[in-house]
Write a structure and sequence with these properties.
The structure is a homodimer of 213-residue chains. Chain A is mainly α and 213 residues long. Chain A contains ten helices and no strands.
DNA sequence: TGTGCTACGTCAAGGGCGTTGACGTAGCCT
DNA sequence: AGGCTACGTCAACGCCCTTGACGTAGCACA
């Protein structure tokens, strides 16, 4: 017996276990032990299923989160949770991160973030702008990082090798700045740029809050 | 007579005119007046073609750019150009933004950005970290904004309406922060969050630079 | 001028994908 | 007992990427 919940869970598991290309209606059907077309009894289309997956990702990111009263720590935690949740399911994240679902868990997340900012003392217009920058930055990095993870294994290792192979052997006269930092670049590009970018955003927000007072 | 250049240009035009789904080898072949398989004489795979498209987007973003010596202005200009270039071809951006091409124009862009940061006085490790955050922030927002633009018109207006329809009519007791800022949210979410997020990043970088000295 | 090689494009096919509508079938309500 | 509904299957349509065998036109060189 199928259900919305079982299908969404199976879709996420499929993506988590078999990576990139696994999320197709046909394979989903096989994983469910049912005919692929049975999925259409529960979701109007693959896109409809995707919105449900997006909502589930948001739910998992928020699960168990509590405000501590320290707005920087709270925002950092939310950001890292969103980032981690989407990275855990790269293929789904790629397709789902830019959709506005308007459903319960998304609403709860918006309310939580706005609450942290307004309680911290940001005036409403500033709170909204920072909310917007914060959310889209988190999702943007999540999509970018998820996309890298979702690549076929061949393309993925090729992308990484480029930083050593192509950038490590450039003419120092033509590209002095790359040549001077090639080893730092190769090391840094292996990690996500998100945590550092998040700290920069929090730094800038804090400076603005101080200036407001 | 086909050529790499003709195929890439046609691919971009195809995507610009007919949307995301138009970029298939079959349609590309038709648009070129040739058999789809002819494309494989010039590109190893559809993925290979994609990298060429990505490279072309970078080239267009950088075209005509010159450093002014004002690092904030220079970085801002580069960021806005990248963002604009990808937004001009949303469907291609979606597929290409997260790829590392390792080719000429990408290398030139990396060299330019690192140059601006190092000439501004950032120590090498800091320059690399800020480079990483800056580039991925720009690309991340570009992908997110491109994704919104690439949606079918129906889904696009539906996503926007959600901010008025769903978020504008929530119970004020259950979601006080959304209720208090609903009008600001609806207005702000119509625009890209990138310009403001970029200023935050530049603010934070400047503060770090001042602290270094 | 004739021969052969190369670059280019075509053709046909294989295997995967989302989606649909007709078709059974099991369980429930009356 | 009859009928209705929910659910899953089946077969098919049309799209997709990719491949290998096949022509063909033009050039290099004898």
């Amino acid at each position: 017996m199928l259900s919305h919940e079982l299908i969404v869970d199976t879709a996420l598991r499929l993506v988590g276990q078999h990576g990139a290309e696994a999320l197709t209606v046909r394979r989903l059907g096989t994983a469910l032990g049912a005919d692929p077309s049975a999925v259409y009894r529960y979701f109007h289309s693959a896109d409809d299923l995707l919105l449900a997956v997006a909502e589930e990702l948001i739910a998992r990111a928020q699960h168990g989160w509590r405000a501590t009263g320290d707005w920087r720590a709270d925002l950092r935690e939310i950001g890292l949770r969103i980032h981690a949740s989407y990275r855990a399911h790269p293929q789904a994240a790629l397709l789902a991160a830019h959709r506005t679902t308007g459903r319960a868990h998304e609403i709860a997340a918006v309310e939580a973030i706005l609450g942290v900012l307004r309680d911290a003392g940001f005036p409403d217009p500033e709170a909204v702008r920072i909310y917007h920058a914060f959310v889209d930055q988190s999702l943007g990095f999540a999509v970018l990082d998820a996309a890298a993870l979702a690549l076929p294994a061949a393309a993925q290792s090729a992308d990484l090798r480029v930083w050593h192979a192509a950038y490590g052997r450039l003419d120092a006269a033509a590209n002095p700045h790359i040549a001077a930092t090639a080893h730092l670049l190769a090391a840094d590009m292996r990690r996500s740029g998100y945590p550092f970018a998040l700290e920069l955003l929090l730094d800038a927000a804090e400076a603005r809050l101080a200036a407001t007072r």
